[in-house]
Automatic annotation (TrEMBL):
Residues 159-188 are annotated as: Disordered. Residues 31-132 form a coiled coil. Keywords: Coiled coil. InterPro entries: PspA_VIPP1 (IPR007157). Belongs to the PspA/Vipp/IM30 family. It comes from the Eukaryota. Signal peptide: none annotated. PANTHER family: MEMBRANE-ASSOCIATED PROTEIN VIPP1, CHLOROPLASTIC. The keyword Repressor does not apply. This is Uncharacterized protein. Residues 159-168 have a biased composition (Basic and acidic residues).
Length: 204
């Protein structure tokens, strides 16, 4: 209920009370006049109510249409973004197709083959360098091993000289008179065979 409608209905009720008062006093003409005014105020209130209801419907329709318009605007914006994305995707696909179309397959394969040859050459160089390094290491280890053999021989000589007394021969050796000082120790059996060969040589 609007303010003006409320005011008209309040006046209508007031006129009704006046009509009751006038009729109670026996003044029908005054009571009739009060009822006429009451009806006029009531009609005005009804008219205002109808106008208010109509305006409310108009406002409701306007709000509904506004919301519908906003929804359509949002939908149009979404479609626009979708179309924009599709256009960008199509543009990118076109560029890729053009790039692939401009690529020379034979030249690309040739470039890959050259790259493979370079890699194989680098691998061969690395393998050769590794082999040289390995050979160098083997030589160093061989030198160390030979040094170890020399040390073992020196130790063996020390043990032999320490276990043999001065003037004694090692086991399996005997002293044989000889004019050759380079061989102070000679094997008896070997010397005997050698003398036999010398004797036979003189007989012939």
């Amino acid at each position: 209920m609007g303010v003006m409608e409320f005011e008209q209905r309040t006046r209508s009720r007031g006129q009704y009370k006046r009509a009751q008062l006038a009729l109670g006093k026996g003044d029908e003409d005054l009571a009739r006049e009060a009822l006429k005014r009451r009806k006029s105020y009531a009609d005005n209130a009804n008219t205002l109510k109808a106008q208010l209801d109509q305006q409310k419907n108009v406002v409701d329709n306007l709000v509904s249409n506004t919301r519908l318009l906003e929804s359509k605007i949002q939908e149009a914006k979404s479609k626009k973004d979708t179309l924009k994305a599709r256009a960008q995707s199509a543009k990118t696909a076109t560029k890729v197709s053009e790039m692939l179309g401009n690529v020379n397959t034979s030249s690309a394969l040739s470039a890959f083959e050259k790259m493979e040859e370079k890699v194989m050459a680098m691998e061969s160089q690395a393998e050769a360098l590794n082999q040289l390094t390995t050979d160098d290491l083997e030589g160093k280890f061989a030198l160390l091993e030979s040094s170890s053999v020399d040390e073992d021989l020196a130790n063996l000589k020390k043990e032999l000289s320490g276990s043999t007394k001065k003037g004694e021969l090692p086991p399996g050796r005997s002293a044989v008179a000889s004019t050759n000082s380079a061989f102070p120790f000679q094997d008896t059996e070997i010397e005997r065979e050698l003398n036999e060969l010398r004797r036979k040589a003189k007989e012939y």
